[in-house]
Amino acid sequence: MPTISMFYGIIIRMYFFDNQQHSSPHIHVHYQDDSAIIELPSGVIIEGKLPKAKLKLVEAWVEIHKDELMADWQLAISGEPVFKIDPLK
User: What mean pLDDT is reported for the chain?
Assistant: First the structure.
């Protein structure tokens, strides 16, 4: 479960071969005791929850990095290592 980015206490991960349970491209987002699975590139929560303010940050980050995220998704579903993506600044 590689961490692809971290910012403002938010950890973003993308799992290898993670297209069985959730067939659409997605990321796993963790913040303190909350977690969510967020669809790419839309930024819509598929499962779980995040505090509103943190969700807004993640949505902005997804919008900025959607091309990189989709490239990482292709690597991940092929079982290849994903690359890190710059945090939100």
Answer: 92
